[in-house]
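Q: Structure for this?
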Amino acid sequence: MITFWFAVLVLTWVLYFVLEGFDFGVGVLSPVLGREEHERGAIIRTVGPFWDGNEVWLVAAVGVTFAAFPAWYAALMSALYLPMVAILLLLAVRGVALEFRGKHDSPSWRRRCDLLLAASSGGIVLLWGAVLGVLVDGLALGSDGEVTGTGLSRSLGPLLSPAAGLGALAALLAAVLLGATFLALRTTGPVRRRARDVARHTGTAGAVTLLLIGIGTGNRLALAAAAVVFIAGLQARRSREGTAFTAVALAVAGAVAAVFTAHGSVVLRSTLDPAWSLTRASAAAGPEALRLITIAGVLILPGVLVYQAWSYWVFRRRVASERVAS
Amino acid sequence: MDVLDLTRLQFAVVTIYHYLFVPVSICLSATAAGFHLAWLRTAREKYLHLTKFTGKLLIVTFAVGVVTGLVQEFQFGLGWSAFARFYGDVFGPTLAIEGMLAFFLEATFLALWYFGWDRLPRRLHAATIVVVAVGTLLSAYIILAANSFMQNPVAYELDPSTGRAVLTSFTELMTNEVVLAAFPHTMGGAAMAGGGLLMAIGIWRTVADPAFRTLARVGAWTMLIGGAVTAISGDHLGKVMTAVQPMKMAAAEALYETATAAPFSVFAIGELGHDRPFFSIEIPGLLSFLGTGSFGGTVQGIDDLQTAYTAQYGPGSYVPMIPVAFWTFRLMMGAGILAMAVAAYHLWSTWETTRRVPPLPAFLRPGQGTPRWLRRFVLLAPALPAAANTFGWIFTETARQPWLAFGISKVEDGVSPGLTSAEVIASLAGFTLIYGLLAIAWYRLIVHLSRQPLTPVASEQEEPEPVPAY
């Protein structure tokens, strides 16, 4: 049961990072690829019907973490207090910028929303990347499952580690690559062309970064991901946009899964004493809670996947950046 | 202030702020669904315009609700990790199920509805907004069930080996007598909040565009019906509360000594202290009636409860902050009743009757049109229910003190162990700044959207953004 829920947990986080990853990437790329106002509008329109549904995977992932592994949730959130708060605040800014942009036609309002969207998307990606990096490294967990130390250094300290830096860089590259291949798939005209170019360049850079991570951590998944990303960049060049996007999504999924399974059954490594590490068993919830979410998950999640897939099908057409005269 | 106070303050700030937008979203999704179905049935253009108009207000409000709601899910771990660890079994599944069941529905189907006007068959498209409305209700119910656990812990047992609360029955958790009573009460309050916004916009715009008359009246009816539901269910909730948390209701009246046929003070002057009796305007027997259903019923006083709790839970103060409980309870009821009165008066004054009415003073005659004072103070309509909702929550949460979950764990036991004031001050500053900006942007956008004509000019493009070419 615990193993099953660990798998579900990894799945929800993977889905979150892949799905929201591409709309983060679109956010970061919107000012780069959208030279004109109407092009930026079209770029944002490509994620308009999806981003909120994507973000709910974060609600699901955090909910599953809390429900199935409460001690892990408690340790992680309170340890990374300030980074998490920063992510939440940036998510707030970003969500509102996305939803509010099209509701007012003044150019200054839209410019401000565009700017906020790009900045917040970039910031969130960097922070999530750093958090994932820290997850691999582990935290200074004490015997009570809480991170030792006090003050700002406690919550910000872990983000200054090389692992966090590498994670942030990899996340930014991954998001840009996801966003670029997604935009190449979903747009037409000059935006599509520019998106393809970006995909090709970041494909190479992303592959190199993943290769470094793979060599550094000895993680085979990361090495495989590096190859996939490299191929994706090439595919994007050859207008095989569907293949390119799928390849990048798979690579990101692999990388995220690698982070969560890096230490076997240890879910959060203590850097002070291995005995204080949180394992799947020690962090798991009680049997009744697990039984309950199993029933709920089995009944609900397949339905969610079906209707989310349906919504992608409904809005499958490319968004043209040329304004259609009314 | 120490870490505990700061963390409590932060929880209060972000929760109260979140709950300014949630009730409006709940009500607007139901109203939009109502307009949409009315359009489908009657094929009257008016309803189509009202649907789209309400839909835009909904999207904008929903967005703020979503981004601030996300914070709520993280909060238990951020500032209250000891609580999260202790109650993870109860709270975690509840939040996870809310996310999987309701939140996904709301987010996905709202997008399908908003962007799907020309992509989906008519009936299927109308069904999407109904799904959104149902999703918001589900969300609200599950979250209220989680809160009701803290008011009246059920369906758990304490695991002696880990010291954690372990869930024993989800059904029991979802049918807690407190959630059964609190759900209609909260939904009535939500109807008042959303109805108030619609009524305000309707009144404000009717002068320039008579098409808005319907919006104002629908808003007022929503407020009035919501108010009736709130009042009836509030009476029931009061009785349940008196049974499960007698201290809360005693604090609401500042009733120190156990009394039969206890009166209810409408207003009080002076310190609500123990030794100095305060002057108040009282309705005899009403507190007994509110609490027990009988004007002669016995209501336990604060002193007796304190003695009983000390014997049961050990030494310490079990008395919440009396003035806060006393006044928030009255402000909640006062604001709610005033909001209902404003709605009722508006309905009366815009009621076009063909029948002869008896000679009445001008302000009591129906069909006089929206009075001038109401047009000037139109913000009363959304502000009063919002105030009532806020005071209601402050009362519910502060009058439970010192308990986090009543009878099992205290507030000071829930806070994250390593947290420092500096961290909470930093995050509180961040929340205050960003939430303040969100409020300004939301208000500007609502005003902007309200200014647009209800009946769009035919040549004007519906969506200012580029439409897909295919």
